[in-house]
Amino acid sequence: MLRHREIGSEELVHHFADRIDRQQDLNAFITVDIDHALQQARIADKLLAGGSPPPLAGLPIAHKDIFCTQGMLTTCGSKMLANFLSPYDATVVRRLKDAGAVTLGKTNMDEFAMGSSNETSYFGSVHNPWNRDRVPGGSSGGSAAAVAARLVSAATGTDTGGSIRQPASFCGLTGLKPTYGRVSRYGMVAYASSLDQGGPITQTAEDAALLLQAMAGFDAQDSTSLDAPVPDYAASLKQNIAGLRIGLVSEFFDPSLNPDINAHVRAALSELEKLGAKLMDVSLPNSAAGIPCYYVIAPAEASSNLSRFDGVRYGYRSKSYVDLQTLYENTRAEGFGAEVKRRILVGTYALSSGYYDAYYLKAQQIRRRIADDFSQALTECDVLVGPTTPTTAFLLGEKTTDPVSMYLDDIFTITVNLAGLPALSLPVGFDPSGLPIGMQVIGNYLDEGTLLTIGQRFQEVTDWHLRAPGEVA
Ligand code: GLN
Question: What is the pLDDT of residues 255-269, one digit of tens each?
Fold first, then answer.
């Protein structure tokens, strides 16, 4: 509609501003800056009128508050960064801006992206628009709630162990975690650097392709960025899936799998079969080790990354200190929330002399085996599938007192990050209480294109992605 001048970007910004205003109870945003968005929209409208606009000209999006934005707060969901203004834009932010997208604001998230429910945010929990008593998933819960409630056209997220796919699944959306290194981490506040990856949270696979096209590509400012050509994802959307070999991961379809989730994922697979795909069984024998392996490696990296928040250089500084030691101690004691402290303690422990070999090194060895399992399975088939999550959206408060039960929610997503592979979550139905169900499709390294092809073909024959939650006035 923007392209055909059926609507202007300025008008769209007003439309979303009004929706954001009416659904403030979702708590999806940490920062909304409509004046700034309107300025960008006016520029976009001129470009659109001029005839050769950049690909996303005038499209209002939101960024997870983990991406640094010049001139707009970047809090990472933490008291530690509650007043932090970054002097520069993250590469993802800059690229989307260069592509013409308009930034409406920054979305709520678990503190430092640690969580699966958005309940660890210093700025309060986000509510799931499908049922406000339930979590939207995490850690990109604000982005998912905002897109699901149609407060914005699309949003960015980051995925260290599932934080794009799991909230996408809980909110009935399409979420794409790219291959590690495909999207620059420059300016993305680091949680676990060997696992973190930015990507889009959108209504459709087509939207995900549009956003990924702008976000992806080599960045000299990220030393782990992959210097590989970025394919034309619009072309991927036109491919077909005849003869595509889809591997059903037997460990993911365990007999204890929730029957509603099982039924809907299997129904989605028969749609893909009708489109010519071939289904087969595959095994990832070390899957069960994924959670313990991740919850050693991710906290270890986090404990190192978060050492920079000491009250000296930037962010929160305690008012009560008598020397440098108490400045560090009080700043970190007051600035970090409970889950972040738990991760720093676990990570520091795992890296300590004497425990390093027993925990960290062992976890690294298991990580290699998990990656090898995927590589083996992906010689037998082209993509792997399973449910995105073991349950649909749980109740707010249901798991906050039991961190391990919260960690177990990542069981199907976490191994993908350990291997560095790309994966897409697609909406495939609803449980009997009306909560969305997601299916995860895992691809080979750098093969986001095939995932988008599958998403597009599936969304042409189904309408789950078009369902929207009702509005509570
Ligand atoms: N739930 C996982 C964690 O708490 C994953 C979070 C993420 O992907 N950022 O670490």
Answer: 989 999 999 999 999
